[in-house]
UniProtKB/TrEMBL annotation:
Coiled coil: none
Keyword Hydrolase carried by entry: no
Source organism of the structure: Crotophaga sulcirostris
UniProt protein name: LRP5 protein
Gene name linked to the record: Lrp5
SMART domains: LY (SM00135)
């Protein structure tokens, strides 16, 4: 499957690689969704959201069980990287140097 964030519509969506079965997973309480990474082993997706209240969130790959992981000391959380072996999530913040 292919997952993406859409800042223009403030949604997280998924589709099969052939373009079928497109589905909106999350469309509420997103302000400026940006980066997204997946942990297919554990079945999670993680994403950044700039907006008025910047945050990094996660949910199951079907969009359920959504929760905020980080919502303090963030400016414009943008890039995400997931180290599956060490079980660590890294992010870049475009507002800080």
């Amino acid at each position: 499957n292919l997952y993406w964030t859409d800042t223009g519509t403030d949604r997280i969506e998924v589709t099969r690689l052939n373009g079928t079965s497109r589905k909106i997973l999350i469309s509420e309480n997103l302000d400026e969704p940006r980066a997204i990474v997946l942990n297919p082993v554990m079945g999670y997706m993680y994403w950044t959201d700039w907006g008025e209240s910047p945050k990094i969130e996660c949910a199951y790959l079907d969009g359920s069980e959504r929760r905020v992981l980080v919502n303090t000391s963030l400016g414009w959380p943008n890039g995400l990287a997931l180290d599956l072996e060490k079980e660590k999530l890294y992010w870049g913040d475009a507002k800080t140097d």
